[in-house]
Amino acid sequence: MKHCxxxxxxxxxxxxxxxxxxxCSVCRQIExxxxxxxxxxxxxxxxxxxxxxxxxxxYDCILPYSGGKDSVFQLWYVVKxxxxxxxxxxxxxxxxxxxxDENNEKVFKKLGVDVIKFTPNWKLIKDxxxxxxxxxxxFCWHCHxxxxxxxxQIALKYNVPLLLWGESTxxxxxxxxxxxxxxxxxxxxxxxxxxGITADDMYEALKGKYEKRDLxxxxxPDSSELERIGCKSICLxxxxxxxxxxxxxxxxxxxxxxxxxxxxxxxxxxxEKIECKWQGVRDYCKFIKRxxxxxxxxxxxxxxxxxxxxxxxxxxxxxxxxxxxxxxxxFLKTLGITEDEFYAILxxxxxxxxxxxxxxxxxxxxxxxxKQWGTIA
Length: 377
What we know:
The chain contains 15 helices and five strands. The protein is mainly α. The protein has a three-stranded parallel sheet with strand order 1-2-3, with helices on both faces. Strand 1, helix 3 and strand 2 form a beta-alpha-beta unit. The protein is globular.
């Protein structure tokens, strides 16, 4: 299987391209980011956007929030650097780990913000997770569409036209570049969040078990409704130079935010995807389908930023990627499927030239807080 000669990203990665030197398109995008963008100018563009909305609505912006490193930094930056009043919108995907609530209490108290938390129907979520796993090999359809679709609906309900999201996806993949000033719109929602599967599709797949209105949180609003409020939905990472390690240092120092262990990830990345119980399983699904996991993603970022050498990254990949997560047992019990059924579902989504062999997979270790999760019915 072909890998980028610099960052080690594989050819099975979605949207990736390689040039004649064997360097991937994401590495080239980061080179552009570091050498061609005038960040002072882009920050001025952001200030001009903010000036159009500040003080003119009940809230100056809507800020989607999970409690992970990126959304916490977004919130800190909006309150402390941009000095505007956000409405924080949380989509509860039923997978938050215990530390998240502790972190969020510290963050919300220190920053003094209004927060809305939406928790969807758990029975529906379980069914959507299984259906999405079958259709795409990724059970997180409800989370992706809920975070984006429902947050946009909150903007409509509160008549707040400005939404501020986190980093540009050009940091990690090549569907968009830093030159394009990526918008969070219906096209992006279809390409990256819903993967072309609509809420109506899910309603039909679940064969009348739920009403159509039960699927509203996963629906992107009509463009006419967003145009009515003059909606502008943008990535902060297109206007400020995004640096994850620096951002994490900021929120740990300013907000006393805490990281912790995540399945399949080296301990030095204690900030990555700490919010979700199922992250280890999701990364394992990616490994089964595409031959790489979260560690590969993380070391690629650090190699591009000059924090790791390619050789150091390769060694971390060997040690941490591709282990069977301990949380898989609880996941299978939650969805009511066997491990053989799990592998059979994912085999359909395997991306050539990768070939997965479950007999070559070592067992991962149990997370320290799993006993606090209880049983999931």
